[in-house]
Amino acid sequence: MATYNLNDIVLGVDIGGSHITAAIINLKEKKEIKSTWNRNLINAKGTSHQILQGWASTILQSMESVETKPEKIRIAMPGPMDYETGICLIQDQDKFRSLYSLNIKELLAAEIGYDPADISFHNDAACFLKGELYGGSLYGFDKAIGLTLGTGLGTSYTSSGKAEDADLWNMGFLEGIAEDYISTRWFVKRFYELTGKQVADVKELIDNHAGSTDFYQVFSEFSNNLASFIYQFIQRETPLAAVIGGNIAHADTYFMKETQQELNELLGYSFPVKKSFLGESAILLGAGAST
């Protein structure tokens, strides 16, 4: 069983709206220890006890293959949340409602046998951008924006060399807010409106309906929505590049080219929009490197 210098390792955790991923991060080598990588599905509509037990189980699994257990656990988590105290403030989204107002830092610490002071929470969108700047698609850029597309919409930007949460998921957009149009639930809702057929997520949409006229219409509309949103984001932050990650990014074949073309037309110049190079590792590395 492997041993490591305690100063060199932390446990990085990525909590999403439907999953949790955890791995021990070797800070000295700036990479995750592959043997400790674990990913499990989580029912974000479950009870607080069910969610916390699912998180705890995955975290403990990641520590089983190393003799030296990390002293610090750094968790990337979507907001809204009081990241300093560990109190979850998610209330009006389609996830984690049972955790609202709970101190999940203290509750999780009790589940895994850690001191709450050794667990820290960080915004997942900021962690994603931090990881990509650290050694991913945006390596070499010093001013950029990041978008994580999945159950929800995460947005981040660089400020004074640091990655920060842009918190634009609820920005007014079209006839609602940005997350209404740039998320898994938009795909599910829009495809049902066009066809009367239910799909669970973007993967099922691709697996069962790729090639149909309605399939291409949905992705074309999404491309236009995404380009319009990125355009507005650029006006706010004047970045030099953007990176896109999250589960929906796996479907980039169906929207990235059209999004890029539409965005360039809106801007009047070519702006680089890159797909995440690190994938899930970006958030884990970004979380691990956070303090």
From TrEMBL:
<dbReference type="InterPro" id="IPR000600">
    <property type="entry name" value="ROK"/>
</dbReference>
<dbReference type="Pfam" id="PF00480">
    <property type="entry name" value="ROK"/>
</dbReference>
<comment type="similarity">
    <text>Belongs to the ROK (NagC/XylR) family.</text>
</comment>
<protein>
    <recommendedName>
        <fullName>ROK family transcriptional regulator</fullName>
    </recommendedName>
</protein>
<dbReference type="InterPro" id="IPR043129">
    <property type="entry name" value="ATPase_NBD"/>
</dbReference>
